[in-house]
């Protein structure tokens, strides 16, 4: 592990806990934890930051998924194939990430997230209850698999906003409530994180000691976040989603166009 000061490690742990909470509720926790790692680690260690973030966040995602499953079972017939496809395509995305300019994906993410944010803001009834589209039809599962493939590939090749994209796709495309979508999204996120972690593991990019330390705090935040979302319901998840996506858009605009 790099020679980090005590207070730097403390701040990283706080960031990991906050990221776990946000990720469990609405997705987007990487917006906090990943920049904190970029700042804390020396220049030239960006890949180490990405890899260590994945190690920490996969533990938090697993904790949130377990908490959701315990209190609010996801639609397993949709979640499992969607997660499997997302895992494969996330690995493919990570493998080909060096072939595509990052700015291209950043610009696309800014446009897509802005449209999604306005849509959710102006349509308050969306995601309040689960009204599945094509329920019981093959179209439902085909749509879920396509969503898993597209978002999985995006997560592997770029990443920011993956949880938010998953949430809005499950709500807007498949018809889940925000709370039910959060439960399903965590399982899909497990697949994409696992694929990226395998790729990073083979390249030796993970800072294991730091990553496992941050994982403990990410787990605590994820547990509290999932319990909060379950107790407060879909309306609370919607409000957090709008706030997190707004901050994510601002950050992407700053990183892509202003710096």
Describe the structure.
- There is one protein chain.
- The chain has one domain.
- The longest helix is centred in the first third of the chain and has 26 residues, at 46-71.
- Helix content is 79%, strand content 0%.
- Helix 1 (6-25) packs parallel to helix 9 (208-232).
- It contains ten helices and no strands.
- The chain is mostly helical.
- It has helices spanning 6-25, 30-40, 46-71, 76-95, 102-122, 138-157, 162-172, 178-203, 208-232, 234-258.
* Cα Rg: 17 Å
Mean pLDDT: 86
The class by helix and strand makeup works out as mainly alpha
Number of DSSP E strands: 0
Shape: globular
Distance between the termini: 29 Å
User: What share of the residues does DSSP label as strand, in percent?
Assistant: under 5%
State the assembly state of the protein chains.
single chain
Please summarize the sheet with the most strands: none
- Give the proportion of residues in helices: over 70%
> What count of domains describes the coordinates?
1
Work out the helix count. 10
**SSE series:** HHHHHHHHHH
Low-confidence stretches: none
């Amino acid at each position: 592990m790099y020679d980090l000061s005590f207070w730097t490690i403390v701040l990283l742990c706080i960031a990991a806990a906050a990221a776990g909470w946000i990720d469990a509720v609405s997705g987007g926790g990487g917006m906090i934890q990943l920049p904190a790692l970029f700042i804390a680690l020396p220049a030239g260690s960006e890949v180490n930051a990405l890899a260590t973030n994945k190690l920490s966040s996969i533990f938090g995602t697993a904790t949130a998924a377990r908490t959701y499953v315990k209190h609010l079972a996801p639609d397993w017939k949709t979640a499992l194939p969607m997660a499997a496809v997302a895992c494969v395509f996330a690995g493919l995305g990570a493998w080909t990430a060096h072939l595509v300019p990052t700015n291209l994906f950043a610009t696309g993410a800014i446009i897509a997230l802005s449209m999604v944010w306005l849509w959710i803001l102006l349509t308050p009834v969306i995601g309040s209850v689960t009204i599945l589209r094509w329920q019981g039809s093959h179209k439902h599962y085909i749509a879920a698999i396509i969503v898993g493939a597209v978002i999985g590939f995006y997560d592997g090749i770029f990443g920011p906003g993956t949880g938010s994209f998953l949430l809005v796709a499950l709500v807007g495309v498949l018809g889940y409530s925000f709370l039910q979508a959060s439960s399903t999204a965590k399982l899909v996120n497990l697949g994409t994180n696992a694929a990226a972690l395998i790729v990073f593991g083979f390249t030796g990019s993970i800072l294991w000691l730091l990553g496992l330390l941050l994982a403990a705090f990410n787990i605590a935040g994820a547990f509290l976040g999932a319990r909060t979302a379950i107790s407060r319901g879909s309306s609370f998840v919607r409000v957090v989603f709008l706030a997190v996506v707004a901050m994510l858009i601002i950050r992407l605009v700053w990183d892509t166009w202003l710096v």
